[in-house]
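Protocol step 6 of 9: fold each sequence in the batch and record its structure tokens directly after the sequence line. For illustration, a two-sequence batch is reproduced in full.

Sequence one:
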Amino acid sequence: MTSPSIVWFRDDLRLADHPALRAALDRGEPVIGLYVLDEESDGIRPLGGAARWWIHHSLAALADDLREHGSTLVLRRGRAGDVVRSVIEDAGAGAIFWNRRYGGAERTIDADLKDGLREGGVEVRSFAANVLFEPWTVTTGSGTPFSVFTPFWNAARHLPAPREPLPKPREIPGVRSAPAGDALEDWELLPTAPDWAGGLRERWVPGEHAARARLRTFLDDDLGTYDAARDEPSAGATSLLSPRLRWGELSPHTVWHAGVETGGGTGAGATSASRFLSELGWREFAWHTLYHFPDLATKNWRKGFDAFPWPQLDPDHLVAWEKGETGIPLVDAGMRELWHTGYMHNRVRMVTASFLTKNLLIDWRLGEQWFWDTLVDADGASNAFNWQWVAGSGADAAPYFRIFNPERQAERFDPKGLYIGQWAPDSAEREPIVDLRATRAAALEAYEAVKRAR
């Protein structure tokens, strides 16, 4: 009698370079894929609207891929600990494998499951798959986590190189009768009343096949000019891989080695490749910071920033920012791109975040929540980490006096107005909701409270 292996998919919706899947295949028993939509366990943050749209389509693609390879994907909703135990019992499974997660609540769930299932005689193993370096392996000489990116990345680069990615399996033997699961449509992840996802459908095709095609296109067409053009929002020079990495349709190991191989040599191409790989390093830094500071989305990483005197919220200003109706063209263009596509160019993300926190003096947590709901690539680490970086409250944060001037940013990075013309051609006709110079001065004055609190 067989005792199937379960592969618990989480933020790793792929078949290639999937160590948990490889371990299940090596065990030699039939394999059942499992995905749990957990919005009930303590500390688990429910997905935002754009993320729900993405994961619906990525799960559909994964289910098709597993089916084509001979296995199946079981979908269930509920508290992960309860669901996993139930599926193991229903399947008569003898083993379960997963790739590790690094958020505080997720680690607690996984650790409790490991202990309980092993006591019951179930084989449980977890694997490193979704970061290049495990968070406990990159520390200062005194064993503490890094707080500044450059020494963090220098230390990481002195570790053994990230492992080579595992190939996609040719076949995944399944069971004759899999445990019952939910229909994906019953989860109602897609917007219907109203259906606001038209722009997302125009921009994205979720799933591993599309992710690998996008990686190849970027490496062939754009990597060579990445360093020179990455800050220009109209240039189309960025990789657009962030949602692929967020949902694990590509592993960071796959992207890393593809970048190293394509960008080998000297000259501009090598410089661009090095810069691109350092962006993977910034993603690593975010995840390592979350591992050591699980409250990254709700609490200031710099405790002294608790003294920042956020004024009473002006809800009209917040709504104007969310809708892209501030009268500041680059800010409005970015916010409208975000609403339409579920994505925003990274340079513009910094500008819009700076405008919210330093010109409108609105708490970074409200901006982080909006991005969480509207970005297809918002994850538990990078979203909060980058918001805190811009606000000045986070690790390796921008100095408190660094306030992005959106007008100068537009002159420098969108000099022909192509990006603004695409997304917010009417913005210049609006009266700005605040004076940039006056609000900059107010922000600097407010930051004096943080300096005094040190």
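Sequence two, same batch, same settings:
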Amino acid sequence: MMLEISVIIPVYNAAEFLEKSVQSALQFEEVKEVILVEDKSIDNSLQICKKLASENNKIILLQHPDKENHGAAASRNLGMQKSTGDFISFLDADDYYLPNRFDAEKEIFKDPKIEGIFGAIGIEYLTEKGREEFQSKFNDTFLTKVNYPAEGMEVFKGLLGLTPKTFGTFFHLNALTIRRHSIDTHNLRFNELLRVHQDSDFIIKLTYHCYLKSGIIDKPVAIRGIHDDNRITKIIKYSPQYNQRQLLFWKSLYDWAEQQNIPSGSKEKIYLKYKSFDLSQKTGLIKYYNIFIEAIKNPNILKTQYRFNYQK
């Protein structure tokens, strides 16, 4: 099966890594176009984007209409809007694909029922500081993957922690390929109000609306570069900043779940996660009063990590 894939790369201050990222996508005959969405970098990323686009007609350079910075969510949305391939994949500008990136897609997408495929990604330490920060937060986990093959609603429930076996971490956008038609049918877009976690938000909604299947999950199909500027390693877990970002993420999912006819167990899990981080923002007696009220409505709130130890 010959695929026509649009690879969308949001670009912000990635001059050091960008060319390797782009070339890793161009190695595949299945890649119809590489869409660079330059997001008002303050380094020379724009100049590199222009150079790359001038050298290969598969490379399309976009900027936001006002040429301002709008974040990764808005950049990916713009890339999807302008894409022309039958399939869409994503790649971060400081990461790169491996030669096996689309091996599973060429076989699994022969089944028209399958709307998306996801795999595993590995890591490469580009700086010593980046390595230390990453390992202090995530240990030395080489693969970001799910723990066992899955498809359909099992993926959605697994990401919410509602499967009998531990499903694993969120799979990464770098290892996701989706039918463009499915995205458009369900009007799936990244939440531009989320400056972080917009990828996890998108993925959970995607796995509910579309039929996804795991591809290669025992070895990486892409590599994530770990360096000094990875945002995910900067936030201390359960710190006020972490709790605030988690609140925005789970509030986005809660608002979405309220509009969907999703299973009651899944809706409750999303609500409890949202409410736990909402409670983490309360202080003093108001916090304990709100916990008491929530516990009356649903005692399961006491099993969540609303965390007394910050913002008491």
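Proceed to step 7 once all outputs are recorded. Observation for sequence two: The longest helix spans residues 240-258.
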